[in-house]
Amino acid sequence: MPIINQIFYIFVATFMAGFALNAFFAFRDKSISREAKIYWGLSVSLMTISATSAAIAAFDIPAVLALSNLTVVGVFVSQALLFRSLNRSVDKRLLYYVAAMLVVFAIAISVMLTGVVNFGGRLLFMTTVLFTLVFWQMKEIHQLRKRDQSVHLGCIFYMLLLFKVLMLLRFYLVLQHIDTSVQYVYQEGHIGLFFRLALAAVCLFEFIFIANYFHEKLLLREQQARLDVEKSGADLQASNHEKNKIQNLLDEREQLIKTLMRSNKTSTTGALTASIAHELNQPLGASLLNVQHLKALLQNQQLTPEIELEIFNQLENDTRRAGNIIQSLRAIFSEKSASTAVCVLRELLTATECVMKTEIRAKNILLDLFVEPSVKLMCNSGQIQQVIMNLVNNAVDALTQKQSGSRTLSISGFRNAGRVILTIEDNGPGIPEAQHGRLFSLLESDKPSGLGLGLWLCHHIVTNHHGSIRHEAVLSGGARFIIELPAAIE
Questions:
Q1: Quick one: which of 3, 211, 320, 473 has the most CB atoms within 10 Å?
Q2: CATH level 3 topology of 2-235
Q3: How far, in Å, CA of 426 to CA of 367, rounded?
């Protein structure tokens, strides 16, 4: 009988030592929590120690049985904690209870093995403890199977159920066939040996099914990873297909842009022609009036040297203004950066006033001009003066339509936080609300004879100067245009 126990437990110890090395294979699975890995490794290690100490005790060293019994209990405790960790996190209070229970058990079994309690009493004690721990394991597995229908979990559950049945049968049958001379487990008869070996075999099967459960999780994870790779490959192929479609669309877009650019040359040429006609209308018209005035004076013999000089100066200014307009428009439509310099706003407005003063007086318009003397901006003076002239001409045209009341044109300029704010406002009839959304659109005009170029050109010039222009309706009637341009750095 001792030889059978020695051979069996040496075999179990050797098997568990190899199994312990293989069990750590489950640690590769990242889906298993760190707690579960700890309890699984602890359970395998304790089972190895238990089998080894049982084999040593079979060499007629019964004192080692206390360690064997303690480690067996530790195996079932660590397995229960393993299944609990797969359900939810194990709190520290439960660990304290388990540690206290193991300490009490170690003391109790050590005292019992001194002879205070006979073999039957110790058998009842061990059966009760193990029965309770197995029940705990089965409860945790039952909770786990509600969300994980693994076949291996089912096998573990039924292995534990068989373990409980064998424990109860062993306790009942061994007590029926032993006498008072039996002091240790190795002295029990053939029936006790059979059930002990059967219980050990069931315990080994449980370990195998736990290991298979972890391997199953690892294989499922690897299979899912392979499916993800295959899906990524399919997505990549689909992405390449979409990429080719997008590239084709981009090629079509590029071809369309080239076509539009060719078409745009024709449009630009037309816009340039219309702009020249629109902008040159003022200086040429002024020159015509001066020439007619000069002819009338000559016919009436009223021409004096002073008047002659004034008329020729105005003709010279109008001619220069026409030349500046052509140069300015060429720079705009050639899309080249216009030359800029530091300009004094007051000087630009004064030059505009000199050009427009005759017409303003003739139409009974009161000009209110207020500009801070130190306001300077970085700009192309010809282009910005052209913007001012366009807005002033529009205001004069609007005020001419006013039949009653005073006619006022207000121009103000000041600096605010690195920007120059220029406001041109009139108290004329204002701009119809329907036109507000497309005031600065090309070829859009609310005037019967308008070409729809003036405000569009103003917007184009101001934008090229990194500024902005907007319209505001005046509650009392009239229109207000606000221009913001970068101030010169002094």
A1: 211
A2: Rhopdopsin 7-helix transmembrane proteins (1.20.1070)
A3: 10
Supply the pLDDT for residue 133. Answer: 93
How do strand 366-371 and strand 408-416 relate by DSSP bridges?
A: parallel
What are the structural domain ranges in the chain? 2-235, 339-486
Structure tokens at 249: 């669309």
In tens, the pLDDT along 50-104 reads: 888 877 876 767 678 888 889 899 999 999 999 998 888 888 899 999 999 999 9
**241 CB-side CA count, 13 A:** 6
Element (H, E) at 483: strand 479-486
SS3 at position 389: helix
**Which pTM was predicted?**
0.47
The DSSP element (H or E) to which 266 belongs, if any, is helix 190-299
How far is Cα of residue 407 from the mean position of the Cα atoms in its chain? Answer: 58
**With contact defined as beta carbons under 8 Å apart, do 256 and 264 qualify?**
no
* Distances from the Cα of 181 to the Cα of 59, 184, 187, 425, 482, angstroms: 19, 9, 9, 123, 116
Q: Domain spanning 339-486: which superfamily? A: Histidine kinase-like ATPase, C-terminal domain (3.30.565.10)
Which regions of the chain are under pLDDT 50?
A: 260-261, 263-272, 274-275, 448-452
Q: Are 157 and 138 in contact (CB under 8 A)?
A: yes
- Both tokens of residue 375? 């306001």
Amino acid letter, 174: V
